[in-house]
Amino acid sequence: MAATSQSGARLAGIDGLRAVAALWVLLFHVRAFSHAKLWPGVDLVVRSGSTGVSLFLVLSGFCLYLPVAGGNASRFRTRAFLRRRCARLLPAYLASLIAVLAAYLLTDGRLGLPKLNAHDLLLQTATHATLTHQLFPSTFYGLNGAYWSLGLEWELYLTLPLLVLAVRRLGLIRTVLAVTMLTVVYRLALFYAAEAEFISRHGISTTVVLPNLFLGRWSEFALGMCAAEVYRTGQSKAWSRRWLLPALLAAALGLLVANNPLEHVLFGMVFFALVLGVLAGHNAVARAMCWRPLVAVGTMSYSLYLVHQPVVEMASTMLRARYQESPGVVFATLLVLLPVVLAIAWLLFMTVERRSIKSASPHRSQAQLPVAGLLSASGRDGPDCARFPISWQP
After folding, report:
1. Which of 239, 316, 371, 385 is the least crowded, having the fewest Cβ atoms under 10 Å away?
2. To 5 degrees, how large is the angle CA 62–CA 186–CA 252?
3. Cβ–Cβ contacts within 10 Å for residue 377, how many?
4. 337 touches 328 (CB < 8 A)
5. Domain residues of the chain, as ranges?
């Protein structure tokens, strides 16, 4: 089975990866808010769920660059691209933001959501509405902790025209290498500045805000662009074999080296290889990612990402009050309640996100190419991004 759907409208395997990333982040939050400690191997996987953001960044770079991959960078139009991003992503985000603000006002400091005074409410609302909340320690995790990566994604969107320009001048490989080197230098500079106590070693700015500015995560997005070029030129199978060993080494270094400042760079390499493997098709991973229930969750994974954390947070607060000495029971009960979270996400998808997909998705791609023009050289069906520029998947 290839990684594509038979309809030619979507890359089913990419949808499956989106679902994996969203569900992984969800499980990470279920574990965090339940305070449960799982079996050693399982616990390691679940508590690493925040790494799902790295997979989302690679997928984002893949889907956004795909329409101009294969020598079509000159067709990129910045204004059209940004207009479609706004139309595609902001309606569902703003709808979820209004719902979260309503939850804060209605709970008034109960159910695990902190009480906000007028100043805090105004600050949180203003920064989140303008997608600048990830720039400040006091708002980075405010309102809905999962929102931080949305701000990061918009930073990356704003850099895409610059990256496309660099590809025109330098070529894609040189651009990706330059971006990766900038990310490595930036992250190492932050690490050694903290070690030398030029900046606070344990402050939230040092540990959270600064590492997650676009410079600290740029390489993951750029690797996604590289995956788009590989797919567009029909080289997915060859590259997936070539990247298997480097990905395994990167995963080992990312998992085993404590306080690793290059952790996200390494996991970007891992997920780059994973995406290549799915795109190559005809392997167990590609077949697993094409499982229909997983693909169905993948189609609404943006909505799932937007709504899941406040729901899990409030439900876990109520459950912990009842099962104070049994975090494992809280964790298990939250797992049983996951269909409720999925139902809420589906509601947001059906009422808002699906409409925004249509409004942001003309029958021509971002690069103004016909759908047929985005078929890969290997003859695979046209991907998701060909007809609908893919939603940001955190």
Report:
1. 371
2. 65
3. 11
4. no
5. 12-387
Buried b (16+ CB within 10 A) or exposed e, 294-317: bbebbbbbbbbbbbbbbbbbbbbb
Q: How far is CA 194 from the centre of its chain?
A: 27
In the numeric block, which tokens belong to residue 307?
């709504």
Q: Which residue has the tokens 């937007």?
A: 306
How far is CA 258 from each of CA 191, 253, 261, 270, 391, rounded to the nearest angstrom? 13, 9, 9, 18, 33
338-348 and 327-336 helices, crossing angle to 10°: 40
pLDDT score for 185? 98
* pTM metric for this prediction: 0.89
Residue type for position 129: A
Give 45-50's long-range contacts (Cβ < 8 A, gap of 24+): 48/255, 49/24, 49/25, 50/25
* 10-residue mean pLDDT series, the chain (394 residues): 42 95 96 92 89 95 95 92 95 97 93 92 97 97 95 97 96 97 98 92 92 97 97 94 94 88 95 96 93 95 97 95 91 96 97 88 41 31 34 36
pLDDT at 366: 37
For 17, 27, 115, 151, 387, the CA distances from 306, given in Å and listed in that order, are 17, 14, 21, 13, 23
Q: Tokens for 267, please give them.
A: 């996991």
Cβ count within 10 A of residue 161: 15
Rounded Cα distance, 220 and 269, in Å: 7
Q: How many CB atoms lie within 10 A of CB 173?
A: 11
Q: What is the identity of the amino acid at 329?
A: V
CB atoms within 10 A of CB 252: 12
Cα distance between residue 354 and residue 346, in whole Å: 10
